[in-house]
Amino acid sequence: MAGVVVVGVGPGIGLAVARRFVREGMSAGLVARSEATVKTAAAELDGADVLPVTADVTDEVALRAALDQIIEAYGVPDVVVYNAALIQADRVGDLTAEQHRDAWAVNVVGAITTAAHVLPAMAERGSGSFLITGGMPLSKPDYVSLSLGKAGVRSLVTLLDQQYGAAGVHAATVTVSGGVGPGTGWDPDDIANHYWRLHAQAPAEWIHELVI
């Protein structure tokens, strides 16, 4: 298997997803903005075939280069998980236009860049999964930029399915509706099982949004 790529790996969902997929014998390409973060995640997966790469998802050139580095090492991935997000509390009027663009760049545009870079090759092969960590099943006025961003990736999944679904690419969001933490109702290891479930679905069973 060509493996999994987790963009926005960290100590919560990102690491748990990587751990779940390497348990199935997959290689893992890990991408994070911080070198310390991505190396720590790689160390947590000691014994697995892991390639940690540093890139800021808002830097298109760097993100594409990171994906190319992973593809060169492992081939076109079986599954890509976009887990990057800018999570902050803000209400209408709190952010400048530039700050809204910055949030949108992380929450949505990075996912578009990632999809544009890997999905054509997945479609050519005839298989693959592109999974996005969603959230905010209901928009909240105290989290405007995040509400808009999660609505954006929900729409992106619909568009990706329309463009690539017939070619065998499964696009979906895992919409997390609460605060993530070990031992809670949103334990990252439990959440990670849902990503595997989506990836393992046959085309006739595809779900495009899983709310947990």
Describe the structure.
The structure is a single chain. By secondary structure, this protein is of the alpha/beta class. The chain has a single domain, classed as 3-Layer(aba) Sandwich (Rossmann fold). 46% of the residues lie in helices and 17% in strands. The chain contains 6 helices and 7 strands. It has helices spanning 13-22, 35-44, 60-74, 97-125, 144-164, 188-200, and strands at 4-7, 28-32, 50-54, 79-82, 128-135, 169-176, 209-211. A 7-stranded parallel sheet has the order 3-2-1-4-5-6-7, sandwiched between helices. α2 (35-44) links the parallel β2 (28-32) and β3. α1 (13-22) packs across α6 (188-200), α3 (60-74) runs parallel beside α4 (97-125) and α4 (97-125) packs parallel to α5. The chain starts with a strand and ends with a strand. The mean pLDDT is 95.
List keywords for this structure.
212 residues; alpha/beta; Rossmann fold; seven-stranded parallel sheet; 46% helix
Structural class: alpha/beta
CATH architecture: 3-Layer(aba) Sandwich
* Radius of gyration from CA coordinates: 16 Å
Characterize the biggest β-sheet: 7 strands, parallel
Number of domain modules = 1
Shape descriptor reads globular
Largest sheet: spatial strand order: 3-2-1-4-5-6-7
Q: Write out the CATH superfamily name.
A: NAD(P)-binding Rossmann-like Domain
| Helix count from the secondary structure assignment | 6
Terminus-to-terminus distance: 28 Å
Briefly, what is this?
The chain has helices at residues 13-22, 35-44, 60-74, 97-125, 144-164, 188-200, and strands at 4-7, 28-32, 50-54, 79-82, 128-135, 169-176, 209-211. It is α/β, with parallel strands linked by helices and 212 residues long.
